[in-house]
Specification:
single chain, alpha+beta, Rossmann fold, eight-stranded mixed beta sheet, four-stranded antiparallel beta sheet, 12 helices, 20 strands, RNA methyltransferase activity, MeTrfase_RsmB-F_NOP2_cat, RNA-binding, methyltransferase
């Protein structure tokens, strides 16, 4: 898998290694490759040298390719690409001696808060969120914090002009509340955000489904809850979309995990919707491909909202993104080892045995034909690993 890095606007001031990224002049030499124990066959298209029956190929790493949908449009209409993808895996980057200058540069700029390294699909939810300068944003399940960093720049919480210092007395234009239910993960979030030195981020630790109203005017005697322009619900999930980099999930996965997470995911999404302003955006995302954790949650959210929420299609403003449409039809399943398939399927909630109805809930089933036309679940995004050489992801 290729390494993806996010390059905010401030990194344009850096020379030196930026030319290496753009021009692809870093080479993986034979000695370094041999020391890594890497053996590549000579395919006739590159210059190879055979040594002890091991053929080592000298390669030039391709330039970083821009990720067009990881971009930002300024008030003047100028588009700035914020994401780039390097054609080199993490292991090679860390262990190949000839790549040490690039690796060191990346580590230094990451520690300084100038760049953030993360997977391409992990950058998609903040782009769909479409946060603007001056907005208030709630990241309900923020740890480890890469998405929070991305949103922070979009709302104007980080200095963008040359010469400005992070943490200076320059008043931020917008702000983000970064929350995580686990105090240990919230501490990890603080560590991640500390390098940015921004006064526009607030870290909290509370259960997302019970996140409190923060506006003191609304604490007593009012039911007004919406106070955020944007809310991101990147909820806990089974993570089956990450199986390429986490093969252990393949052995451990079963449908009961997804069924157990479904009510929590729905509760977080419902609370996020209540905390958003009228006219604001709520983004729901998982790194799962299971409709129990994805479309069924979105469908139930739209059903409960009864017209107060509608699904938008972000594809038009995400050039180069390859994403499949969301599903409007599926069957609820339950793990069953005695079954030759390993699971049983239910066409409707009425088919579920009474003893399993606490697990296989009615909200796990697809919408009716009339609801499917109204919900338009095809507008959600299904990012499959083999389409863009990424992990699997769902965004709505």
């Amino acid at each position: 898998m290729e390494l993806e890095i996010e390059l905010p606007r401030r990194s344009e001031a850096f020379g030196g290694m930026k030319s290496i990224i753009e021009n692809g002049v870093v080479k993986a030499d034979a000695d370094a490759a041999k020391s890594d124990g890497v053996a590549d066959k000579d395919d006739g298209n590159t210059n190879g040298a055979s040594n002890n029956n091991v053929t080592v190929v000298k390669k030039t790493i391709a330039p970083a390719k821009p990720i067009p949908f990881i971009s930002q449009v300024s008030s003047s209409g100028e588009t700035t690409i914020l994401g780039y993808q390097l054609a080199v895996d993490r292991r090679t980057l860390r262990r190949n001696a000839s790549l040490e200058p690039l690796h060191s540069w990346l580590k230094i700029q990451t520690d300084c808060g100038h760049i953030t390294r993360q997977e391409t699909v992990s950058m998609i939810p903040p782009v769909v969120l479409d946060a603007k300068e001056g907005m208030s944003v709630l990241d309900m399940c923020a740890a480890p914090g890469s998405k929070t960093c991305q949103i922070l720049e979009a709302v104007g919480g980080m200095p963008a002009k040359d010469g400005e210092i992070s943490g200076s007395n320059v008043e931020p234009k917008g702000y983000i509340v970064a929350n995580d239910a686990d105090p240990k993960r919230a501490y990890m979030l603080v560590t991640q955000l500390r390098r940015l030195q921004s006064p526009a981020v607030f870290v909290t630790s509370a259960d997302g489904q019970f996140f409190p109203v923060l506006d003191e005017k609304n604490v007593r005697g009012t039911d007004k809850e919406g106070m955020f322009d944007r809310v991101l619900c990147d909820v806990p999930c089974s993570g089956d979309g990450t199986v390429r980099k986490n093969p252990g999930i393949w052995k451990q996965w079963n449908q009961l995990g997804a069924l157990a997470l479904h009510p929590l995911q729905l509760s977080i999404a419902l609370r996020g919707a209540r905390l958003a302003h009228v006219g604001g955006y709520v983004v729901y995302s998982t790194c799962s491909m299971n409709p129990t954790e994805n479309e069924s949650v979105v469908a139930e959210l739209l059903r409960i909202a009864d017209g107060a929420l509608e699904l938008e299609d972000p594809r038009e403003r995400m050039e180069g993104l390859i994403a499949r449409p969301g599903w409007s039809s599926w069957k609820a399943t339950l793990s069953e080892r005695t079954n030759s398939l390993g699971f049983v399927e239910y066409a409707s909630y009425d088919d579920v045995e009474p003893e399993w109805r606490r697990r296989v809930r009615e909200s796990c089933f697809p919408p009716t034909e009339e609801e499917a036309k109204r919900f338009q679940l095809h507008k959600s995004l299904r990012c499959l690993p083999h389409d863009m050489d990424t992990g699997g992801f769902f965004v709505a």
